[in-house]
Structure formats: C-alpha cells, structure tokens
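Letters spell out the chain; the tokens describe the backbone. To illustrate:

===
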Amino acid sequence: MLQTVCMPLLMVMTFLFWFCLAVLFYCYIGYGLLLMLINAIRGKRKNVSFPFYQPPVTLVIPAFNEAAVLPQKLQNAFNLSYPTHLLTILVVADGSDDETGEVLRGYPQVQVLHYSQRRGKAAALNHALQVVQTPIVIFTDADSLLNKDAVQRLVAHFATEKVGGVAGEKKIREGHSSVGKAEGIYWRYEAVMKRLDARLYTVLGAGELLAMRTALYPVLDEDLILDDLYLSMHIGLQGYTVAYEPRAYAVEAPTLSLHEEAKRKVRIAAGAFQAIEKLSLKKIVHYPEMAFQYLSRRWLRWVVCPLFIVAVLLLNVLLVAQNKNGVFPVLLLLQVLFYAAALVGWGLIRARKAVGWTTVPFYFLFMNFCMLKGLYLYLKGRHTALWQKAKKEVPFF
C-alpha cells in the first residue's frame, strides 16, 4: 500500500482525476446533451430538401476484389428509384486480381475504370472524378446496399446552395455475428450524433454514403485513409455544409469475427491520426461552429479519450490507496464493475453470443484500445492507404 503522499501531490491527483473524468463524460455524453440544449434554444431548424429536384448524378463504387458482391451491388444500383437517364453508375476496380473485371464485363450499361496496379481508395476516387461529368457525385462502398430512394433523398438537399455535401446513414444488417450486434449499437449512437451535428452546423465524417457537389472535390493525397472525413471537412472549409439524411442509408453485412473487426478499427484509427495531421487547424478556426464540432467530436475523442480512460483508472486506484473513505472507493467499484461487464462481453462475443448490457462496455473499451494501437502504427509509419477487406458474414445479403 502506498504511503500517504504530500497534500499538494494529492490535490494534483484529485484535480487530474476529475478533469479526465469530466472530459470523458463530455466527449461521449455531455457533448450530445449540449447540442440538444443549443438546438432547443435555437429552435427547430428545418432540414430543407426539395423532393422533386433531380440533377444528373454519378454513383461511384470503388472496388477491390469484390467479384462476390458486385452482382448484388449493381442490381441494387439498377433498382434505385431515380431516372435512369440521370444516373450514371461508375465502378473503379482498384488493382483487383479476382474475377472483378470479368463480372463487370457482363454489365455494359456500367461505366468501368480498371487498372492493374493497386493504389488505394483515394487514388481510385481521384481517377473516377477525372471522368465524372455530372454536378453531383455519390460515393458508396461495393459491400453495402442502398435503400430504393436513397439517391433521391440525398440529392434533394442540393437545391439549397449552402449545402455542399449530404451524408447518409450506415446500418448493420442483423445477422448471427455478435460483433455485428455490438457494431450496430455503435452506429445507432453515431446516427443520433450526426443528426445533432447537422442541426447545429455540419456533419464531420460522412461514413459509407456521401453525396457532394462534384466541383468541390479536391485531388486527394493517395496515402489518405479516411477519405470521408477529409472530404466532409474540405466541404466545410469551402464555406458549405454537409447535411444529414437518415432516410438514405447503406446497409452492410456484419463483420464475421472480433479479429476482423479489430483489423478494420485499427486501420481507421491510424487514419484518424493521419487526418488530424493533414487538416489545417489554421483554416478550421475560421469556421467557429465547425471548429467546435471538430474539437469535441473528433480531436478530443481520438487523441485524448483513450489516454484519459487509462488515467482515470490509475488515478482512482492511487486516490483510494490514500483515502478509503468518501466518493473515490465508490467510483473505483463502479469502474471495476464496468471492466468486469466488458470482460463478460468479450467472452460472450468470442462465444458468438451477445448481451446488450455487456456488449456496450466491451465495445467502448475495444474501440479505444484500437485507437491506441492505431496511434502506435501511425507513429511507427506502419499504416497504409490500401484498405484491408474485413471478412463479413456470407451470404452478402
């Protein structure tokens, strides 16, 4: 047991504990509550859209070794309720070495860009935008399916000149994967936060479904990992906003295993730190609302929170060692119960089962662990823009 430390050091530890705990509360709960309050004071802002606005649109589908899912994806695109003569479907096959090229040859109505050297998603998008001739472009993954009126729901917002982009919603298909159930809970939380962000000002990080004005597209660095975050931030830095349209959504099959989900999360985490380096804070501060959102929703959560989670536990242990009375033992007990629930959740997920009250604490810690590992890989320069396909449940849908 530690000996009693001097009073100034005890005060410092106490301050640090409450400060770290307050930041964690703010990032995951308080920020959302604050947005609710601000939006309530401002009054309801109409999510303005014009349902009969139908500009020409290009649906861009980057693909790497997606032969197994492309037939369903393309059939899904053909079934979208948008005038056929106004919708161009463009697939960019990024160095695929499976039967992707052969599959695409069976769809002459689809525009195809195919090159043998794999260069990554950012390079694929750059290549696609060299040939896009429509005023609106929509990016969608090959392994997700869109709801029938997704395109119409997205483009309806562009009748408002201030809107430079529109983010759709990501949904996880219910399946047998317990990891998928945990991921589904997380994306429902993200959907709520995106709705609040859009009402305040703009969406940061559009996810798997993003529509934008073609003229606003920048040439992306080919080593870029999180293209959706960079594009949504770039749109904001041009003086436009990214709206949110939950009635346009992309449905994905759940990740097959925890190992596969970890690979994906770690890569995304490395991309988060890369994005922080690439985005210019000097430009962001000129847009105070977006800067506030970026600090609260991205920077603090990615850079600070994973470290503060560890700090809160260690400081709590030290404070209890100095004083076994008062609030600190209770808080330590709550932390122990939280970690115990996460441990149970980890065991259940490994056993391909899931219980909601254990899944949430596990997935929370799992994501933050992946952030720390992603930071390590980024600092070591071991991140890559070549996306690694996570194995998902089969059949696709």
